[in-house]
Design brief:
It contains 6 helices and 19 strands. By secondary structure, it is of the alpha+beta class.
C-alpha cells in the first residue's frame, strides 16, 4: 500500500515506564526489520511500515512512542503492533501503555466490519466459497489480502465484537459471546456492491470452526471481519508462486491482480484433478498442478521437488518467489531458497499456512 505525501496524517503518542527500555528497543528493531524499514540512531529508532510509521526513543526508565498513519486503520495497526510486541518482549512486569491523540479508547475498531452471508457454494469438492456483504469496504481493497474472520461461538449466537483498548490492542468480550477468530484470504472484492468472497478448504473430521461454519453458512448469517493485512508483493518481471490448497485462494487473488507485462510460474499441490480450478490473470502464466493422489496433505515433497525443477531467471531479471504451505514444507523451502540458492530475502516470501497433526487453532484456509 502506498500513500501520497498529501495524505492527512493521524498521530498518537505514549510514554511507557519499564525496566531496560534500551533492550526492549533492541528487540523491537530486530523484529521489525523483517516487516518494514528500520532506521536506528543510538537510543532512537524509526520504522516505516506499509500502513504507517513508528518512532521510538529510550531513556533510562521509559520508552517514548509515536505512531502515525495515513488513515484510522493504518494508525490503529501501528499502535497495535507496538503494544503487542512491547508486552511480549517485557518479562516479569506489565507496563501500562496509554495512547494520547487520534483513536479513542472504547471506540469501534476502524478495521472492523460486521457482514452478512449472501451465498455459499462449492467451487470444487473440497473448496467452498462464501460471499459476504457489508458497508464501507474501500479500505479492504488495499494494503493486503488477508482478513480475520470473527465467527459465532456456536450456531445461532451473534457474537459481541471487540473495541479499541487504551494500549491500541483490541479488547475482546469475555464469556460465551466471544467470537472465534480465524485468518482467511479475500478471494475477490467488489467495493461498489459491498461484497467480498472467501474460499474455505473443507476439512474432514477435524475440529475446524471455519470449515464447519462455511459448510453450514446460510444467507443472513452474521460474521465479523477484521482487516486487511498481509501487505503487498514487490513489483517484478517474473514470479514463482507455490502452495497447497490452503494457499490457493491467496495465489488466485494475487494472480488476478498481476499486470500484463510480467510472467508467472504457478505450482499448486491439491488432492487430485477434481480440485483444479480456473485461474485468471493478465500476466503470462505457466500453471502446473501437483496431485497427491491419495497421499495425505503435508506428507509429500511435491512442492519442493517442483521448485527444484524450475529454471530461475538471471539476477538481471526482477524476480520474486512466494510460497504458502505446511510448516515442515515451509522450513524446507526456506532452506532451499536461502541456504542452497542464496536468494536474497528481498526476493522471496515463504509462509507456513498450517501445521500437520494440529488443528487450526490460529489459521485456517
Amino acid at each position: 500500500m502506498r500513500h501520497s505525501n498529501t495524505s492527512p496524517i493521524l498521530r498518537a503518542e505514549a510514554k511507557v515506564a519499564l525496566t531496560g527500555p534500551v533492550q526492549i528497543m533492541d528487540k523491537l528493531c530486530e523484529h521489525f526489520i523483517e516487516h518494514g524499514k528500520v532506521d536506528r540512531l543510538g537510543r532512537s529508532a524509526r520504522v516505516e511500515f506499509e500502513y504507517g510509521s513508528a518512532s521510538v526513543e529510550a531513556d533510562d526508565d521509559s520508552l517514548y512512542l509515536r505512531a502515525e498513519g495515513p488513515d484510522a486503520t493504518g494508525l490503529a495497526y501501528v499502535k497495535w503492533s507496538l503494544a503487542e510486541h512491547i508486552l511480549d518482549f517485557v518479562k516479569g512486569e506489565t507496563p501500562r501503555i496509554a495512547w494520547d491523540g487520534d483513536g479513542a479508547t472504547g471506540s469501534s475498531l476502524p478495521y472492523f466490519r460486521e457482514m452478512s452471508v449472501v451465498s455459499a457454494s462449492n467451487v470444487t469438492p473440497r473448496m467452498r466459497r462464501v460471499r459476504l456483504k457489508g458497508g464501507d469496504l474501500a479500505r479492504f481493497a488495499i494494503g493486503g489480502i488477508h482478513v480475520r474472520l470473527l465467527l459465532p461461538p456456536k450456531p445461532g449466537v451473534t457474537p459481541s465484537w471487540p473495541v479499541m483498548g487504551e494500549d491500541g490492542r483490541p479488547v475482546w468480550p469475555k464469556g460465551e459471546d466471544r467470537p472465534v477468530m480465524r485468518i482467511y484470504t479475500i478471494r475477490d472484492i467488489d467495493v461498489e456492491r459491498g461484497e467480498i468472497e472467501i474460499d474455505f478448504v473443507l476439512h474432514e473430521g477435524d475440529d475446524t470452526p471455519g470449515s464447519t461454519w462455511a459448510q453450514q453458512a446460510c444467507p443472513g448469517d452474521i460474521v465479523g471481519v477484521l482487516g486487511p493485512g498481509g501487505g503487498e508483493l514487490p513489483q517484478a518481471d517474473w514470479y514463482l508462486f507455490a502452495g497447497d490448497e490452503t494457499a490457493l485462494p491467496a495465489i488466485s487473488r494475487i494472480l488476478a491482480e498481476l499486470p500484463a507485462d510480467c510472467r508467472a510460474t504457478v505450482l499448486l499441490e491439491v488432492a487430485d484433478a477434481s480440485e483444479e480450478q480456473p485461474l485468471r490473470s493478465a500476466a503470462a502464466l505457466d500453471i502446473r498442478w501437483l496431485h497427491r493422489n491419495g497421499a495425505a496433505a503435508g506428507t509429500t515433497s511435491l512442492i519442493e521437488d517442483a521448485i527444484r525443477s524450475i529454471a530461475m531467471p538471471s539476477n538481471e531479471t526482477r524476480r520474486f518467489i512466494w510460497a504458502g504451505c505446511e510448516q515442515k514444507s515451509c522450513r524446507c523451502l526456506k532452506r532451499l531458497l536461502r541456504k542452497e540458492w542464496k536468494v536474497p530475502t528481498s526476493q522471496h516470501q515463504v509462509v507456513a499456512y498450517w501445521r500437520a497433526g494440529h488443528t487450526a487453532d490460529q489459521v485456517e484456509h
